[in-house]
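Tutorial, part two.
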Amino acid sequence: MSLFHSHDHHDHSGHDHAGHGHGGHHHGHHHGDASAPAGFPWRRAGLAAVLIAFAVAAASLVQVRSGEATVITRFGNPARVLLDPGLSWRWPAPFEAAIPVDLRLRTTSSGLQDVGTRDGLRIIVQAYVAWQVQGDPDNVKRFMRAVQNQPDEAARQIRTFVGSALETTAASFDLSSLINTDANQVRIADFENQLRQQIDKQLLTTYGVRVLQVGVERLTLPSVTLNATVDRMRAERETIATERTAIGKREAAQIRSAAERDARIVEADATVKAADIEAQSRVQAAQIYGRAYAGSPQLYNLLRSLDTLGTVVGPSTKLILRTDAAPFRVLVDGPPTLDSKAGTQP
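Running the prediction step on this input gives:
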């Protein structure tokens, strides 16, 4: 080993001495090539490729948020709709673009509308609509095409629909069905249901919008209608008062008639009973008189004469008669006396 090393050393030295200028320059250039990495340009190109691939991948990722749908458009035309929240893929721009569509609930008011009722009166009504874009691909695309994904424009057009529907719906109801002192006659719920039926199908087929609720938030009367309503209510109250007065009079007449009928019935019954009692008393009196006459004819004549005087002579009666004639003879002669034969009879 030492001999080989010594030989190599001598050869290397001789080479340096033999060509000092050229050989020295060649030796320095050889050391520079050995210190640089052999694949450095390729590494830089690979790193750049990785960065480009990462950028392309990041540009191809789409995040779908909760409460939104994402429409993937290909060269400006809707290609597909992403509905599930999370990450998804698309071709990078300019091939495909992602447009978010808000699916949250929104509320739109119609504003005050002057509409006419079926009975020819005017009312001022304001309604609201709770709506949202239907969460399926067809209706999301329909919303995109109809209003270019502009919720404010959709709300403006919905207000126009509701205004027209209010005019049509109000023409199906009388004013008394919407404003009345009797709560049982008020049909606001029917009004709201009919209004919803007017706009529900149109908004879905035109804008892809689903109506969740429709309600009347304000209902007032113009001055002309208010005066007419007050007059009508006054007339209704007067009619009701007249009807109730007539009912009261009719019931009172029925009560009086029934009372008079009952009184006549009671009076007739009393008259019949009195006649029966009087007849019975006369029968009994006749029987008493008969027994009295049979027992004492003279006493019977006396009692009959007294009864006759009681019947003929009253408190204000003035009579001029013979006193020796019946029945006044008893006043002069006095009570008759029984003859001796009658008194001696056993």
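The first helix runs from residue 2 to 18. In part three we will examine how such features are distributed along the chain.
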